[in-house]
C-alpha cells in the first residue's frame, strides 16, 4: 500500500472524468505523496470488537491525537458503537462499516484508512485534513460481529425486517421519517443522531454480497448504488451519482476491481436511501465474498474507495464528475453457479 496514493492521484488526475481544471489559486498539492502503509497486523480481516478497540487506541496514540475516538451509543449487549474521526476541514464525510455483522471487510479497510490519514504527517496530509473531516462508524454492529450474523442481538425483535429470536436488520431502520423514539434499533439510532449532529455531505455504507458473474464471464468484485427512493431530492441523487462515478473509477483503475451496479430497493429505511433523503451524497459499496486468497484485494478495494472519496472531496473533483456516467456502470449479473455464499441473497444490502 506504500505507493497507493501516488497511483491513486495519478489515476484520478489522468482521467477525463476529472479533467476540469482546478480553480486558480486552489492550493492542491504539487506532487502526490504516499499516504503511507499501515503496519502489518494492525487489525485482522475479520476483527472482533476488542480488535477494533485495540487498533483504534493504537492509531489514536500513534497519530498524536489527530485521530479522535468517541462512542456514539451502545448495542443491546452494552458494546460501544465506535466513532473515529480525522481531519478538521469543512467538508464532512461519514463512512459506516459492518452494519451486518457477517460482512466484515469494510472494518479493516476503515482502520487502515484512519492510520494512513492520521499517522504520517506530510504536506499532502496537512492539505487533505484541512479540507475534509472524516467520521467513521467502525463496526456498527458489534453484537452481530461476535456472532457472525447479519442482525443485531435482540431476542425480542418483532415485525418487519426482524428475525424472531435473533434481532433486527440494522440497515432497515434508518428511516428519517420515523420518530427516533419509535426506532427499536440502537445502532441505527446512533448513526441517525450522528448524521443530525454532523450533517455530512457524503455518506458511504460498506457491505458485502455473494458472488456474481457478468455476461462476459468476468466476476463482479464489487457493486455500488446510489439512492433510489423517490423521496430522495434530485440534487442529492445527482451528487450521489457523481460519488458513484468517482468510486467506480478509483476502484476499477487503482484497485483493479470489477464494479457493477447493485440491484437495491427503494425502501427509505436502507441507509443508502435514508441519508439521500436527508440530502447527503449517499452511496452503498458491496464487496463480493471472494475466496480467502482475495480478502486482501477486497480490503484494498474498500480502502481505495474511502481514500479516493476523501481526495475527490478535498480537491473538488467530486463536484466536477459527470453524473451521467453512472449509467455506464453495468448491471450486476446472476449468481455464480456452483458457489455457495451465505451472502448470496436478493437485495441483501
Ligand atoms: Zn449488508
Approximate strand percentage: 15-25%
Q: What is the total number of structural domains?
A: 1
User: H/E series, N to C?
Assistant: HHEEEHHEHEEHEEEEHEHEHH
Q: How many beta strands in the DSSP annotation?
A: 12
**Gyration radius, to the nearest Å?**
19 Å
Largest β sheet strand count, sense and barrel closure: 8 strands, mixed
Tally of alpha and pi helices: 10
The CATH topology is what? Aminopeptidase
Residue-averaged pLDDT? 91
Q: What oligomeric arrangement do these chains adopt? A: single chain
**Helix proportion of residues, in percent?**
25-40%
CATH architecture: 3-Layer(aba) Sandwich
Bound molecule types? zinc ion
Give the helix/strand class: alpha/beta
Strand order of the largest sheet: 1-2-4-3-7-12-10-11
CATH homologous superfamily placement: Zn peptidases
- Terminal CA distance reads 28 Å
Q: Please tell me what the overall shape is.
A: globular
GO molecular function: metallocarboxypeptidase activity; zinc ion binding
InterPro entries: Peptidase_M14 (IPR000834)
Family: Belongs to the peptidase M14 family.
Domain Peptidase M14: 46-313
Amino acid at each position: 500500500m506504500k505507493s497507493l496514493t501516488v497511483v491513486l492521484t495519478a489515476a484520478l488526475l489522468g482521467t477525463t472524468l476529472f479533467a476540469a481544471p482546478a480553480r486558480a489559486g486552489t492550493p492542491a498539492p504539487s506532487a502526490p505523496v504516499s499516504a503511507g502503509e499501515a503496519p502489518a497486523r494492525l487489525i485482522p480481516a475479520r476483527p472482533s470488537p476488542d480488535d477494533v478497540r485495540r487498533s483504534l487506541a493504537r492509531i489514536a496514540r500513534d497519530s498524536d491525537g489527530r485521530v479522535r475516538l468517541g462512542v456514539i451509543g451502545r448495542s443491546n449487549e452494552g458494546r460501544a458503537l465506535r466513532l473515529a474521526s480525522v481531519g478538521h476541514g469543512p467538508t464532512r464525510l461519514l463512512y459506516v462499516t459492518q452494519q451486518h455483522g457477517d460482512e466484515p471487510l469494510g472494518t479493516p479497510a476503515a482502520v487502515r484508512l484512519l492510520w494512513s490519514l492520521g499517522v504520517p504527517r506530510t504536506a499532502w496530509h496537512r492539505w487533505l485534513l484541512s479540507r475534509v473531516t472524516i467520521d467513521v462508524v467502525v463496526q456498527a454492529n458489534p453484537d452481530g460481529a461476535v456472532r457472525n450474523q447479519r442482525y443485531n442481538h435482540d431476542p425480542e425483535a418483532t415485525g418487519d425486517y426482524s428475525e424472531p429470536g435473533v434481532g433486527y436488520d440494522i440497515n432497515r431502520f434508518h428511516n428519517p421519517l420515523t420518530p427516533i423514539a419509535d426506532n427499536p434499533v440502537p445502532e441505527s439510532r446512533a448513526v441517525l443522531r450522528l448524521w443530525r449532529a454532523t450533517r455530512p455531505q457524503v455518506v458511504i455504507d460498506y457491505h458485502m454480497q455473494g458472488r456474481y458473474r457478468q455476461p462476459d464471464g468476468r466476476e463482479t468484485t464489487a457493486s455500488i448504488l446510489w439512492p433510489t427512493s423517490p423521496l430522495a431530492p434530485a440534487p442529492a441523487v445527482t451528487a450521489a451519482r457523481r460519488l458513484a462515478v468517482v468510486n467506480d473509477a478509483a476502484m476499477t483503475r487503482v484497485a483493479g476491481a470489477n464494479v457493477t451496479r447493485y440491484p437495491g430497493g427503494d425502501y427509505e429505511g436502507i441507509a443508502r436511501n435514508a441519508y439521500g433523503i436527508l440530502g447527503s451524497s449517499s452511496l452503498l459499496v458491496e464487496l463480493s465474498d471472494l475466496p480467502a486468497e482475495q480478502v486482501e484485494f477486497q480490503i484494498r478495494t474498500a480502502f481505495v474507495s474511502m481514500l479516493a472519496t476523501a481526495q475527490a472531496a478535498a480537491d473538488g473533483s467530486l463536484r466536477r464528475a459527470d453524473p451521467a456516467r453512472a449509467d455506464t456502470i453495468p448491471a450486476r449479473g446472476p449468481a455464480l453457479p456452483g458457489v455457495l455464499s451465505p451472502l448470496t441473497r436478493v437485495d441483501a444490502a
